[in-house]
Amino acid sequence: MVHVPPIKLIRTPCYDRRGIQPTWDNTKGVRLETDRVTTSLEERIAAAQARLDRRGLLDALRALVQIPSVYDPAVPDGNERLAANFVAGLLDDWNIEYRSREVAPNRPNIVADIDGVRPGPLLVFEGHTDVVTAGDRAAWDVDPFAGEIRDGRLYGRGACDMKGGLAAMLFAARALHESGSEFAGTIRLAVLADEEGLMRGAKGFVADGELDGAAAAIICEPEGDRVCIAQKGAIRLRVTLAGRMAHGAMPEEGANPITALGLIVSRCRTLEREIQSENPPHPLLGPFYLTPTVALAGEREQGNVIPSSAELLLDIRTTPANDHATTIERVTAAVSAAVADVNGVTCQVEVIDDRPSTETDPEDPVVQSVIAAHRAETGQHPPFGGVPGSTDGTIFWAATRVPLVTYGPGITTLPHQADEYVDLDEVVRYARTYIAAALRFFDLMERGGG
Ligand SMILES: [Zn+2]
Predict the structure, then answer these.
(1) Which of 107, 157, 237, 401 could disulfide-link to 144, CB 3.0 to 4.6 Å?
(2) What is the distance in A from the centroid of ligand 1 to the CA of 366?
């Protein structure tokens, strides 16, 4: 088939990216039949997708799942190092330069840029290398780190969260690179450590300035074919109560922190309903929640002793309607009021974690690009979604308010469960979709869509 370019012709590179076949006959000044020099967006997408190495992608995914990148400082190699090394090896094979920095000992971030043929906006693809523990092996039907394949599904810890998404984004970038990077902009691959813990990888990425100037980020976490444009915020508070120890028969001699703890729980329930009633549930994220998750007090064998202290953890989940400073103030006031009802008990409230909610404009070019790419690949319009927990995207958003889409292969509820798996055809489909989404994004931005 001979394609007649409607507007412009990119004459370089003259060779097929494999360096095998000339695509332009310079002596005659004509394109050869095999020429893949393309001009239309659809053609560039098709050309890059044709470069996707399906076999390589699935082999790499399986190898990644076989690397138990569960963080445990007590275990030699109980970290992300081997998984990061594996990714670095792929990039070496593909002649893609990368930078590596440890955000904690043996916990490296790998960052690589694919520059387009013309300068333009920066689009970040993010995936993490760490996985959570396999937990109780007896609960698994398969070895969590064998990389077993059954009925087109790859089983193992991290298959879904999120080595499937990570492998898809890497091989999508490779296909774009090898098909000539015919786009205006830069793709930055963020392969980060410690997402499941303190998100040190994402924080290090931000601290290194890698997110500076980014126009958008795609977080490749499993979201079950939803295009997630919002993410719930999280605040975790530790309430430490101090009372006075006494005999259970003489409570007037003590100050009981358990009574205070109970009053706090009760007041928190009232406050939760109050805050919920102030705003309707967010269409993608649902309602505000204020949930007591840990209560520690007394000793199991000491039924006749009033303890001297108690501790309560509160897990607060917010929507963009809930300002975090105000929320913390209100919860602290409720805690103080409850404690004031118990003579002699004092309390301290500590903010252990504070992650904002995120919300990207549905009209943002990155959102529209992912939707269009998904539709082209599946024939279906994807629903919007909200992420109930937090991801590395939360850290990105907190730093620069970069428009975010969380979109990756796998079922949303499977992560952290036994017999976690990812569908292999789906991983390949996502790699194809990432290729198209990136090219559509740069095209939209170049045409002023951004
Ligand atoms: Zn994850």
Answers:
(1) 157
(2) 20
Record the pTM.
Answer: 0.85
How confident is the model over 346-392, as pLDDT tens digits? 999 999 999 999 999 999 999 999 999 999 999 999 999 999 888 99
Please report the sign of the dihedral spanned by the C-alpha atoms of residue 283, residue 284, residue 290, residue 291: positive
Q: How far is the CA of 297 from the centre of ligand 1 (A)?
A: 33
Q: How far is the CA of 52 from the centre of ligand 1 (A)?
A: 24
Query: What are the E-state strand segments in 8-62?
Result: 24-25, 30-31
Residue 45 CA: distances (Å) to CA of 13, 284, 294, 407, 436? 17, 31, 50, 19, 5
Length of the chain: 450
Q: What is the mean pLDDT of residues 61-86?
A: 95
Give the residue among 199, 9, 13 at the shortest CA–CA distance from 104: 199
Distance from the alpha carbon of residue 210 to the mean position of ligand 1, in angstroms: 20
E strands present in 307-345: 309-318
Mean predicted lDDT score pLDDT of the chain: 92
Q: Is the pLDDT of residue 39 over 90?
A: no
Over residues 154-169, the mean pLDDT reads 98
What the chain holds in terms of domains, given with CATH numbers, is: 1-39 (no CATH), 54-231+357-446 (3.40.630.10), 236-353 (3.30.70.360)
Place of tokens 């993410």: 231
> CA-to-CA distance for 271 and 265, rounded, in angstroms?
10
Copy the structure tokens of residue 128: 């993490």
* Residue 51 near residue 175, CB atoms below 8 Å: yes
- What tens digit of pLDDT does each residue of 223-244 get? 999 999 999 999 999 999 999 9
Residue 411 one-letter amino acid: I
Distance from residue 221's CA to the centre of ligand 1 (Å) = 6
pLDDT at residue 361, rounded to an integer: 97
**Residue for token pair 């995207």:** 393
Contact of 260 with 308, CB cutoff 8 Å = no
Name which of 441, 419, 316, 427 is nearest 369 in CA terms.
441
Question: What is the distance of C-alpha 381 from the center of its chain?
Answer: 22
Question: How far away, in angstroms, is 209 Cα from ligand 1 center?
Answer: 22
Ligand 1 centroid vs 130 CA: distance in angstroms? Answer: 8
* pLDDT per position as a tens digit, 265-322: 999 999 999 999 999 999 999 999 999 999 999 999 999 999 999 999 999 999 999 9
3-state secondary structure 48-97: HHHCCCHHHHHHHHHHHHCCCCECCCCCCCCCCHHHHHHHHHHHHHCCCC
Q: Which of 403, 401, 392 lies closest to 362 in space, CA to CA?
A: 403
